[in-house]
Amino acid sequence: MPRTYLTRTAPDTAEVERRRFMFRHPAVIRVTHWVNALCLLVLLMSGLQIFNAHPALYWGKVSTFDTPLMAMSQTEDDPPKGVTTVLGRTFDTTGLLGSSDGADGEPADRGFPSWLTLPSDQDLTGGRSWHFFFAWAFVLNGALYLLYGLFSGQLRFRVVPQRDQVRHFAASVREHLTLRFPQGDEAKRYNVIQKLTYAVVLFVLLPVQVLAGLAMSPAMDAAFPFLLTLFDGRQSARTVHFVVAALLVLFVVVHVALVVLSGFWNNMRGMLTGWFVIERKVEPAPAADGTGSAP
Amino acid sequence: MNRPPSRRALLLGATAAAGTAMLGGCDRLGEAEWFRRTLKTGEDANLFVQRLLLTERTLAPEFPEADISPWFKPNGTEDPPDKAYKALARRKFATYHLEIDGLVETPLKLSLAELRKLPSRTQVTRHDCVEGWSAIGKWTGVPLADLLAQARLKPQARYVVFHCADTMDQGDDAGTDADDADAAPSGGNANPAMTRQTGGGEDKRDSGGQQAADAEPATEPVRYYESVDLVDAFHPQTILAYELNGKALPVANGAPLRLRVERNLGYKQAKYVMRIEVVESFANIGEGNGGYWEDQGYAWYAGI
């Protein structure tokens, strides 16, 4: 298939554009990336299954049943309505939250709908089995990623902004807002917002998510009482676990959107084979940098 | 964008189809025995790692009395339908006896008054339901370790099983009060925290129940049962509680005697305990998984 970028840049006569392949993602990074994607998807859906067993959130040590931070329920009406209460405000969420059609097509009393939960039926023990297995897979996979990333220098390449990037932070914000993505040499490294986002996900959201999950375990609370201090109680930990899960969903949505907008096939090829195309703008002569080479 | 729309439409369609297939596939996978066993290794790992992290003496957090929940949410059975239990309750459990037998040198039979005279432990602890909610209560009771020491375990003893008074699944010859469906079995959505079981019980009597009575031979009712290993049985906070928040244990919370095995989820905290049996394995207990909910697929280890 002919690449259309040639026509796009044709009027710019001062620049000679060449495609150069860059080996961007080593095998360990690629494998751990996709294992992680699978784990997060299963953890989210089985987590919603577990949440559905008691679709309400609280703050503090215990459940204050009359005053939840958030709760979903089905009304007694005929047909029943789904109602979601958040911080005292009530919303009609029929069909999505509180009440949605079950496998038999009848409205069922359930927090999240069956197409978002794993297993799709109401099945707390099934959800727990999925959740714990993939929680272990997630933690072991994440440990492998971090260890490899640390010793190979990949982590530094991926999350630590360089000094010039920090200086041009505002410019990077503008680029994102106008959806103009770096090309040429600048495309060889992650941009500053990208690096900071990955850093926040890797070193804040995911560790907090694991700790909040562990804080819900009565045995872990016995072994490490500081977990309760950290989260201000078990019910707060459960709420944090839910909110961080939502933030991770937000991250994945933005991540996938940017993958699509900045060149879906190139990004996919990169994360599947390791090879990423740099659309290279060369001014007088190509720079010999050694970071990329044609296969 | 510079890509032909057909490709994007194809991609979207493929993603949607893959998503639907994946969901159905996951459900079918989850029903396959080999996959179920594979998933369960996650829960085996929980037990293995948590036993490494916790010593036999590591205590569950205890709380100041100010943290006690104003209402201790009862769950599971709230009013056992069994005639024998109702008779005991009417006499305020004056005729109740706890039996301890199985792999012990000295089987014991103790009345509530005798249990109350034994040294007791009081603890304000958090109760965590497998569903996700929590409540804090003050429990007073006899350390299980003291009773087991008195009964003297035989060398083969490995697990302590609690046999309870409340019927979960009614056999046809259940000996329960027909008017009282509070603890009747519920449908396929059952979980150990179900609080409203009345509907399920009525459904069963109205529809399937009658058919079952014609088709099946009389069966024994299934009463609640649970088990712990010796690590949890001898843990200092493991008590048989007869008081909640300084008052006699209410029926809804398991009167006259319930297990408190802190560091575990709610379904391990057996209510209405009638008999304690020390065993070497679960082979002859229920369907062999160590507890009522365990036989419905829940993990035997409930530390997380």
From TrEMBL, chain A:
Q: Which residues form the Cytochrome b561 bacterial/Ni-hydrogenase domain?
A: 24-274
The superkingdom of the source organism is Bacteria
UniProt xrefs under SUPFAM superfamilies: Transmembrane di-heme cytochromes
Q: Tell me yes or no: is Transmembrane among this UniProt entry's keywords.
A: yes
Task: Classify the protein's membrane topology as the record does.
Answer: Multi-pass membrane protein
MF terms from GO for this chain are: electron transfer activity; heme binding
What are the UniProt keywords, alphabetically?
Answer: Cell membrane, Membrane, Transmembrane, Transmembrane helix
According to the record, the segments passing through the membrane are: 27-51, 130-151, 196-220, 240-265
Identify one Gene Ontology CC term for this UniProt entry.
Answer: plasma membrane
Keyword set includes DNA-binding: no
Where would you find this protein in the cell?
Cell membrane
State any GO BP term from the record: respiratory electron transport chain
Q: What protein does this entry describe? A: Thiosulfate reductase cytochrome b subunit
The record lists the organism as Methylobacterium phyllostachyos
Q: Lineage of the source organism?
A: Bacteria, Pseudomonadati, Pseudomonadota, Alphaproteobacteria, Hyphomicrobiales
From TrEMBL, chain B:
Q: Sorted alphabetically, which Gene3D superfamilies does this protein's record hold?
A: Oxidoreductase, molybdopterin-binding domain
Region of interest (Disordered), residue spans: 172-219
Occurrences of domain Oxidoreductase molybdopterin-binding (ranges): 92-173, 220-280
Q: Where is the composition biased (Acidic residues)?
A: 172-182
Q: Name one Pfam family in it.
A: Oxidored_molyb
Q: Where is the composition biased (Low complexity)?
A: 183-194
The record's listing under PANTHER family reads:
BLL0505 PROTEIN, PROTEIN-METHIONINE-SULFOXIDE REDUCTASE
Q: What is this protein called?
A: Oxidoreductase molybdopterin binding domain-containing protein
